[in-house]
Write a structure and sequence with these properties.
- The protein is mainly alpha-helical.
- It has two domains: about 170 residues, no CATH class; about 130 residues, no CATH class.
- Helix 6 packs across helix 7 and helix 12 crosses helix 13.
């Protein structure tokens, strides 16, 4: 199944987009008879590929497992591909590109989450795709044989954020500790890979902007009012609607409600009045923002 590009671009030249280049590389591989021979060899080696005659079939099988929520089967097929990447040669290249292509929609969503006033989608997408290629090439399958899809996504996001300068050395919690917090769940109540990733991504953004206190990370769950507010405030900073200090002011008041020390603007006197007015101005800018753009980015 051929991937169709999601962004505009020319066949070559300065306006050639990352998406168009990936599209052409995928089409070339799908049309290459050597790739068919490689996949035919895999079908002889493993029942996982028994119904596949070309790279498009492998991608469609991955997509089918993803849509069905069959994460065990999805990870098994990803593992089989990752096992073949280090073989090198054209076979390794085929396994490498098929795996990257399978995660390209996820890479696009990551890129949208990493745009900033100074970083447009194309720049972010180019960096994320480069990180994805590197993560797939170097994935430690023997050491990390489980939760492969989620692990590939998190490693890609972390590397991309490092490349874009979105990971701060003095951030309250590094990505590994954020992941550890997210995974503190009772047996049988583990998050699905996509839900786990989205929560990790939100908490990493909130950590970068210093929007949460030390104990708040464990109380942010997808679909709650706190999580929705964090999404909105993070988006507002990315798009220049709010300054980081204004975002921290709103998050400290509306998100960190359980750990506030009981002080109110009135009890804080003149300082409290300044805080209240600053918060009111920030809320006003949020109300005046382009909410259609927010929902498109969400």
């Amino acid at each position: 199944m051929a991937h169709r590009p999601t962004s505009t671009g020319t066949e070559s030249g300065p306006h050639d987009s990352t998406d168009m280049r990936m599209h052409r590389a995928w089409l070339q591989m799908c049309e290459d008879h050597r790739a068919e021979a490689v996949v035919g060899g895999w079908a002889c080696e493993s029942d996982l590929f028994s119904d596949c005659t070309g790279t498009g079939d492998v991608l469609e099988l991955l997509n089918k497992l993803y849509r069905a929520g069959d994460w065990t089967g999805h990870d098994e097929l990803l593992a089989a591909l990752l096992e073949r990447v280090p073989r090198g040669g054209y076979e390794g290249e085929v396994a490498w590109l098929v795996t990257v292509r399978a995660l390209l929609p996820k890479a696009a969503r990551m890129a949208r989450s990493q745009t900033r006033p100074s970083i447009d989608f194309e720049e972010a997408f180019s960096v994320v795709v480069g990180a994805l290629f590197e993560v797939v090439r170097t994935y430690p399958l023997e050491r990390c044989p489980k939760n492969i899809y989620a692990s590939l996504a998190l490693r890609t996001l972390t590397l991309a954020r490092q490349s874009l300068g979105h990971l701060l050395d003095d951030a309250p919690l590094p990505p590994d500790e954020v992941a550890e917090i997210v995974d503190r769940r009772p047996a049988g109540h583990e998050l699905e890979p996509e839900e786990r990733f989205e929560r990790l991504s939100l908490l990493m953004d909130a950590t970068e902007l210093q929007l949460l206190g030390e104990d708040d990370h464990e109380h942010i769950h997808d679909g709650t009012a706190r999580a929705e507010l964090l999404h909105l405030v993070v988006w507002a900073v990315r798009t220049g609607v709010l300054r980081p200090d204004e975002a921290q002011l709103l998050a400290g008041y509306y998100v960190d409600t359980d750990s506030r020390d009981g002080r109110t603007p009135r009890s804080m006197g003149s300082d409290g009045d300044r805080v209240r007015k600053a918060r009111s101005r920030a809320v006003g800018r949020l109300r005046a923002a382009d909410h259609d753009a927010y929902w498109l980015a969400a």
